[in-house]
Specification:
The complex is a heterodimer. Chain A is α/β, with parallel strands linked by helices. Chain A has two domains: 2-25 and 289-412, Aspartate Aminotransferase, domain 1, CATH 3.90.1150.10; 28-285, 3-Layer(aba) Sandwich (Aspartate Aminotransferase, domain 2), CATH 3.40.640. Chain A is built from 14 helices and 19 strands. The longest helix of chain A is centred in the N-terminal third of the chain and has 20 residues, at 50-69. Chain B is globular. Chain B has six helices and three strands. Chain B has helices at residues 9-12, 15-22, 72-85, 90-94, 98-105, 111-134; strands spanning 35-40, 47-55, 60-69. In chain B, helix 2 packs across helix 3 (72-85) and helix 3 (72-85) runs parallel beside helix 6 (111-134). Residues 3-7 of chain B have low confidence and may be disordered. The chains are: A alpha/beta, B alpha+beta. At the A-B interface, helix 11 of A face helix 2 and helix 3 of B.
């Protein structure tokens, strides 16, 4: 499978373990982009000529495939820049409809483990509308999340939470949580951040019964383009994200009316090559087999956890075997955050880079979560199906190198200095 | 020619800087400091707090200490700048540049790591501005 990815040919010594940030692209995806641009390029929806009509058809076919991946209808899919833009557009659009109902603007519920892109927009919306901003707390001792439904009441307008943590890889029981929220308040809008989950958890919007979700193709072996899914009846009554070309039905000096879905939400020229290549990425993953990919990732994650735990001074965040008594976290994906006693994650990542081991270091855009964990930053290794045991071994060697170079006092005092 | 940032790793983690990181002489707080400023790097969450005790008559730095949490570069920079500041005039420190700081560290750094190196000096300069505005 590694041979499907040109980057590993060009960079033979590369140990790429930052897949949660962005995945590498298979040749078929790169070829789909160049193929579209060299053979099919025209503006979609505009031309009367065959080339433009052909581009429009290609994009429509791709939309069908991408929608099918999450069991949505093509018109329920909106293309945006990335997950962050998706979340912001949802916030802006839904925010316009939040009006005063007798002095009560209600509340918005998110969790403490959210990425800033699913935290700050809601925090700011709540502020601007005078709404209550409710944050479901994480228990750092036990590595569990309080039940989301506990903060939902009759005044809850929106609940937005991640399907998989970009820090710990914790996978949430989206279906179970959504069901509980519906039972308590059927009018609450449920939004899921699928940025990480899309590559590792089977997402079926009908089965999950959620209202909106957002993800980005670049974390799923595709190009940099974002996707927002929304339930059809909700999208129909919602405000457009942007105004402009392609999204109107009729414009007069006095008034404008909107095009049908999904054009209503896609003002301006859409990114044809990226959409077509996204469908190719999904077909590619289908050929590899989603389950096969998960099996490889799981195996490598277990291997990495075992190796990491054997290094003195290494502490892994999450990945506990014990069951979450709140039934919020139901497992872990191939993302491992860890800290090494006395070594700052930045130094660790810099020393890893010496051996072309790419890991992430920082707060991962989750400062409230970091605050709860009581740390400023973690090192994060994230695995994809094209990784090998040798990538993990290179990481372990680099961590030991870092310990030998920096010789942190905290490890020396425990008599573990090497 | 600029040195390759990857081969620069050895310079970054050389004994001298690691000594500053593992045994920073000036780590601590000064209770009666006239200048006190804390800052953080939003990219990585590194924090540093600087304390400066002044010789008011001479407008010189009598003593400087720091506390904080961060990588080797940011913590070694904080240790080095607090050491360097002692005996210097406020004006001298105010005009220090990025190149001056990197010179003290003896490093060429990639843009991301320059931010680590500049954390303490920036905090010191902001602290001086705050002190002078209160005068």
């Amino acid at each position: 499978m590694r041979k499907h990815f040109a980057i590993f040919k060009h960079r033979k010594g590369l140990h790429y373990l930052d897949n949660a940030a962005t995945t590498q692209k298979p040749k078929v995806v790169i070829e789909a982009i160049t193929g579209y641009l060299s053979k099919d390029n025209a503006n979609t929806h505009r031309g009367i000529y065959a080339l433009s009509e052909n581009a429009t058809i290609k994009v429509a076919e791709a939309r069908k495939i991408i929608a099918g991946f999450i069991n949505a209808m093509p018109e329920e899919l909106i293309f945006v820049r990335n997950t962050t833009e998706g979340m912001n557009q949802l916030t802006n659009s839904l925010g316009k409809d939040i009006t005063d109902t007798g002095g009560n603007h209600g509340n918005i519920v998110v969790t403490e483990i959210e990425h800033h892109s699913n935290f700050v927009p809601w925090q700011q919306l709540a502020k601007s509308k005078g709404m209550e901003f409710r944050v479901v707390r994480f228990d750092a001792e036990k590595n569990i999340l309080n039940p989301i439904v506990d903060l939902v009441d009759q005044d809850t307008r929106i609940v937005s939470f991640t399907a998989m943590s970009n820090v710990t890889g914790a996978i949430l029981d989206v279906k179970g949580i959504a069901k509980q929220i519906r039972a308590k308040n059927p009018n609450t809008i449920i939004i899921i951040d699928c940025a990480q989950a899309i590559a590792h958890v089977k997402i079926d919007v009908k089965d999950l019964d959620i209202d909106f979700l957002s993800f980005s193709m670049h974390k799923l072996y595709g190009p940099l383009i974002g996707v927002v899914y929304g339930k059809r009846y909700l999208l129909e009554k919602m405000n457009p994200f942007f105004y402009g070309g392609n999204m109107i039905h009729k414009v007069t000096i006095e008034e404008s009316t909107w095009a049908d879905l999904p054009e209503k939400f896609e003002a301006g020229t859409i990114n044809g090559p990226a959409i077509v290549a996204s469908a190719v990425a999904m077909n590619y993953l289908h050929e590899i087999g989603f389950e096969n990919s998960r099996t490889v990732e799981d195996k490598l994650t277990k291997y990495a956890l075992k190796k990491l735990k054997a290094i003195p001074g290494v502490k892994i965040i999450g990945h506990e075997k014990t069951k979450d008594p709140n039934h919020q976290i139901i497992g872990y994906g191939p993302i491992i955050s860890f800290v090494v006693d006395g070594i700052h994650p930045h130094d660790l990542a810099a020393i890893c880079d010496k051996d072309e081991v790419c890991i992430r270091a920082g707060h991962h855009c989750c400062q409230p979560f970091m605050d709860k964990l009581g740390i400023a930053a973690t090192a994060r290794a994230s695995i994809a199906f094209y990784n090998k045991k040798s990538d993990i071994d290179a990481l372990i060697t680099a961590i030991n190198d870092a310990i030998n170079i920096i010789k942190p006092e905290s490890l020396a005092s425990k008599g573990e200095r090497r | 020619m600029e040195p390759d940032p990857i081969s620069n790793i050895d310079a970054m983690y050389r004994e001298e800087l690691l000594e500053y990181y593992n045994h920073p002489a000036n780590r601590g707080i000064i209770e009666d400091a006239q200048i006190k400023f804390s800052d953080q790097n939003p990219l990585c969450g590194d924090t540093v707090e600087l304390f400066v005790k002044l010789d008011i008559e001479e407008q010189k730095i009598k003593q400087a200490k720091f506390q904080g949490n961060g990588c080797v570069i940011s913590m070694a920079s904080a240790a080095i700048i607090s050491e360097y500041a002692e005996g210097k005039s406020i004006d001298e420190l105010k005009t220090m540049t990025r190149e001056d700081m990197l010179g003290l560290l003896g490093l060429h750094l990639t843009p991301a790591r320059v931010k680590c190196a500049m954390l303490a000096l920036t905090a010191l300069k902001k602290g001086i501005v705050e002190y002078e505005s209160k005068k």
